[in-house]
Amino acid sequence: EIVMTQSPATLSVSPGERATLSCRASQSVNSNLAWYQQKPGQAPRLLIYGASTRATGIPARFSGSGSGTEFTLTISSLQSEDFAVYYCQQYNYEYTFGQGTKLEIK
Amino acid sequence: EVQLVESGGGLVQPGGSLRLSCAASGFTFSTYSMNWVRQAPGKGLEWVSYISSSVSPIYYADSVKGRFTISRDNAKNSLFLQMNSLRAEDTAIYYCARGSIAAAGTTANDYWGQGTLVTVSS
Closest Cα of chain B to A53: distance in Å? Predict the structure, then answer.
C-alpha cells in the first residue's frame, strides 16, 4: 500500500497571503496525484490532477507541482472561500488519500 | 449536467448487511470507471473500492476486502456496493465518485455524489 503523508496538519494563513501545502508518497506515484478541497457538509471537489493540471473551473490561483514522491499545492492569494480541508490522492496504484491539511484563517 | 445520487444508507447492527446504490446521469456511464470513497465522522477520506468501465478490473481497500462487493449495471446507469459483515468502524458517509477520463484506468475523481450515511451500531 502506498502511504500519503500531508503536512502540516493545520495551516493558519491570512487572507491575501500565499499558502503552501505538502504531500509525500511512500514510493513513486509518477505524476498520478490529485488534490481535492472539502468544505464542511460538502463532497470533495477536484482541484488538480496529473500533479499540476487544474480541473475545469478551478481558479488560476491554485497550482500544483511535483512528481515522484514530493508534491505541493500552492494557493497564491487566499480568498475567504479557500479556507477548507485539502486532501492529496495518489492513483498510480489503486488509490490512497493523505490525511488532510486544514487551512484556517489566521 | 453530471449527477451522482447515492442511496441505501441507514442504521444496521454489527454483522449485518447493506446495499448502497449510486444513480448516474448526464454522461455516458458505461465509459467511465467509478469509485466508492468513505468518510467516518470527523475524519478524512478513505478510498473503498474501484470498478473499471468494463467491470474488470476491480480493486478494494484492505479494510473491506472479503466483506464488500462493488458492481455496476451499465444498462441502468447504476453503481452498487454490497456491504456484509459490517463493523462499527464502517460507520461513515459513503460517496460514489467518477473517474475523470473515459475508458482509462485509475484516474482522479472529477464528480462526486453528496453521499449516504451508514451507521453500524447495536
Answer: 11
